[in-house]
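Section 4.2 – Deliverable D4.2 (structural model, holo form)

The reporting period included a commitment to supply a predicted holo structure for the target in complex with S-adenosylmethionine. Inputs used:
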Amino acid sequence: MAQKQACLVLFLQVEKSLSHFLGHRQSAMPIGLLALRHRAGSDLKTNGMVEAATLPIKMCCKAKGLKEYFVSNFPKKGFVMKENVLSQFGPLYHNYSLFGVHNEQLPGIFKLNQQAKEEFLIPYITRAVNILKETNMLISFMELFCADGYYAMVARQLGATIAYGVDNNRDGFFAKASQIASALGVDNIHFFEKDVQDIGTFKPVDIVANLGGLYHVSNPEQILVESYAVAKSFLIVQSVVSMENNSEDYFEAPAPGWSWGSRYSRESFHKMILAKNWNILDYNFNELPGNINKVSMGSVYYLIKK
Ligand SMILES: C[S@@+](CC[C@H](N)C(=O)[O-])C[C@H]1O[C@@H](n2cnc3c(N)ncnc32)[C@H](O)[C@@H]1O
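Output (structure tokens):
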């Protein structure tokens, strides 16, 4: 334990000095540092969910191997901030600092929620890509509910050889995805304006990332199962859950206060996903500070390996 604590202290010092040196705010922390923080922290922190769960969950983040994460994921080309090549698109859903660009981000919930979500999502993508790199020459990645395609682009940055983004453009963010990728110089990325309800027709890929969308559909369990089916090796999941209800049997569709979507509680989502008997490598929970309504405040994260 003392060794692990020393490791985390050392990591935090490296993070602090590098962030300072690079002029990064915490929100703009380079990808490798986010991965590293997760790797160190997940073995050391006490996760409320882990404590609460009596069901056997495999937690296999280990504090060792930090150097490997650091060296392989630090974006070597990303140190120098570029001119804002995204200025022509106006304020965007995501902040693209990880690509070396300080773009204007939409006001309100966007910055806060991105920070909360990527704390877990970037390490999960990193981990899946790194495991596959050991055996695969080519790694395909697909982000479902991709909006402007941020995490599909992040996956390319982290070593996926080809990435896809799928969104039905219901909220209008998807329209800029391809242009943002081109402006950032992210190649081998393709965006499809499709409804995720058609997932049964999608080609299998190595990593499926179902992010920020299950609570938008009225049949989340079905979409989750189909996401797993279309993943060859990894499924990464993030969804919003209610913090107003902690019943493990809670499910509502449409979502409370909406005419569409659905809502689980943190506990009922966990129960639903555990019942699949999938190989959960890691899971987590945090609050989305941008969402002030308790029914949309919780956020769950799962990294699943097939
Ligand atoms: C909250 S955003 C998620 C953005 C991104 N994946 C993230 O996690 O930051 C939800 C996106 O889902 C899209 N969406 C909602 N319902 C959909 C559906 N049935 N099929 C495809 N996209 C959908 C919306 O257009 C929106 O861009």
